Amino acid sequence: MIHRESGTFKRTYGEEMALYPFPLPRYTVLAVLVVVFAVVPYVASDYHLGLLNLIGIACLGAIGLNILVGYTGQISVGHAAFMSVGAYTAANLVVRGGLPWWVAMPCGGAMAALVGTFFGLPSLRIKGLYLAISTLAAQLIIEWVLNHVTYLSGGVGASIYVQRPTLFGFEMKSNFAFYYLIYLILMGGVVFALNLFRTHLGRSLIAVRDRDVAAEIIGINIFRTKLTAFAISSFYAGITGVLYTYYYGVANYEAFQLPISIQFLAMVIIGGLGSVLGSIFGAIFITMLPIGLDIALREIGFSLLGWDDSVVASIVTQVQLMMFGGLIMFFLVVEPDGLNKLWNNIKDYFKVWPFPYL
Amino acid sequence: MMYHIELLLNGLMVGALYSLIALGFVLIYKASDVINFAQGELVMFAGYIVAASLQLYGLPLLLAILLGLGGMILLGYLVETIVLQHLVGRPVVAIIMATIGLASFLQGLAPFFWGIETKNIPLPISDEPLFLGDILLNRIEVIAGGLSLVLFGVVGWLFTKSRTGIALRAIADDQQVSLAMGIDVKHYFAVAWGIAGIVALVGAIIWGNAIGVDVQLALVGLKVFPVVILGGLDSILGAVVGGLIVGAVESMAAGFIDPYVGGGTKDFTPYVLMILVLMIRPYGLFGKEDIERV
Predict the structure, then answer these.
(1) Contact check, Cβ <8 Å, B108/A320
(2) Which residues 88-127 in chain A show a CB within 8 A of chain B?
(3) What is the ipTM of this complex?
(4) Is the entire prediction scored with pTM above 0.95?
(5) pLDDT-derived band at A185, boundaries 50, 70, 90
(6) What pLDDT is recorded for position A126?
(7) A329, B90: Cβ pair inside 8 Å?
(8) What is the 3-state secondary structure (H, E, C) of chain B?
(9) Which domain CATH number covers B12?
(10) What residue spans define the domains of chain A?
């Protein structure tokens, strides 16, 4: 959204506070929407649509986590577990309760919000590292419960199989149909998140992050604010979990283990803490990383080092883990504001281009 | 009744090992205020160095251990100078994330070089169990327990009597004042990481001998958090007591509850215990009571 700010005069308070105060970004948003909903699904192949669906789901989860970590300053190492709560709730409601998906999905989100809020309770007494450890406990406890309480998790292998959602008798079997569902929900999530931080609640979240004592002094109820942040963030996580369940066709706790929690944290950090656009960058980057790495290893390994498939297959996981960890550390040390900051730098450069001395 | 005592004693032996691994965590936290989520991975990495020297390169045990010692000190030093030094003064979340990144990095690095296959660290100790009356004890666990106690004595002495230890305690107390008194804070951070690396090596040799060396070895790191929360994050005594309690509790819980729920209680009870401690006494049994509440 490269644009000039000169020549735009604001006459009312409403114009000043608009989400997109300049004309060009407004058109850009419109263009992005057209591309996402009218061009991409018709151009992309089925494989690429599948990838885009995964990216869309990851974006939703990353935005939710960013509301908690980036905007409110509370860390959660148990986000994947909250996703699994949403996933199993919805799967149970659909398979055993026979409810339609559009009832089960918000129920999954609500259940995740409830559980997330419960494990957020320690954040009232403790913060920082203690909170990280207690959410880690949440992750392990929820995993254990799903693995051992067969009433909740459907017996053998703790898996519940679900069918793709149907609407007016049409089952969204193809990636194409599912693409619309995911991206419509994602759009809702983005709009909600962008607007949240223009409201009283959103600003109190930021105040709590920046200085909790000061926030309390100016009359923000920290108790309620922190718990609301946990609830909103876990609601996003729950919906993400439900979408994963529908996408894979099965609710299984193995899709929501500790490494996934860390993956989502990596998205938020690499993308940029405290930025919705950054969460999207991070989600795209982390989802594409394994695929890009696989291709790169094959290209380089085959031509330069004389490897074959088995060599690549045997090291790809390790290289992935190293890239993951290395990138997290790299971004924390070199560019703490993540990809979003890089994007802003590019924007700033072009703002005065070609007269950088102005 | 014998069965219960056996459960308890075996739990305590394993607990001594947990204390040992938690000790590395406490050392780093005490000196540099860094919450190290990669303690388990440090143990795994140390285990990999020793096991790979033994099996892949055919070195004698003593040389392998010396190599592990050098490797871990170097690793600690590199982590401190390349990553953590730049994060001083940044929010806790950033430091936690950096160590999580380090954990992931080490999990990839070790098997990348030395393969994912499980390796053994054979020690010249016989497998025959010891009998204490009618109670059956695992020989290696008894030796491990004893070794842990010795190591705790050494570290305790180091912290209270030696020049290094006094500097480390000064830094833990107040970084700025220590700098003003002419203590090279960065150097001592690296020293703390080096000591933590050595402690991890001892844990790795014993634990790796018991369960083999592969990426699963890092899972022992997950036990560190209940131990340090229970004992208090900055207390060496707390690490000992916390480790013993966690070991005993999980062994007892596994003995009593496992038959009903089909296993896995061991991984679960320490965390329930920890949540309870966090709610009631967040600074732990022996920790400093200066936890911030908002």
Answers:
(1) yes
(2) 122, 125-127
(3) 0.84
(4) no
(5) very high
(6) 67
(7) no
(8) CHHHHHHHHHHHHHHHHHHHHHHHHHHHHHHHCCCCCCHHHHHHHHHHHHHHHHHCCCCCHHHHHHHHHHHHHHHHHHHHHHHHHHHCCCCHHHHHHHHHHHHHHHHHHHHHHHCCCCECCCCCCCCCCEEECCEEECHHHHHHHHHHHHHHHHHHHHHHHCHHHHHHHHHHHCHHHHHHCCCCHHHHHHHHHHHHHHHHHHHHHHHHHHHCECHHHHHHHHHHHHHHHHHCCCCHHHHHHHHHHHHHHHHHHHHHHHHHHCCCHHHHHHHHHHHHHHHHCCCCCCCCCCCCCC
(9) 1.10.3470
(10) 23-351
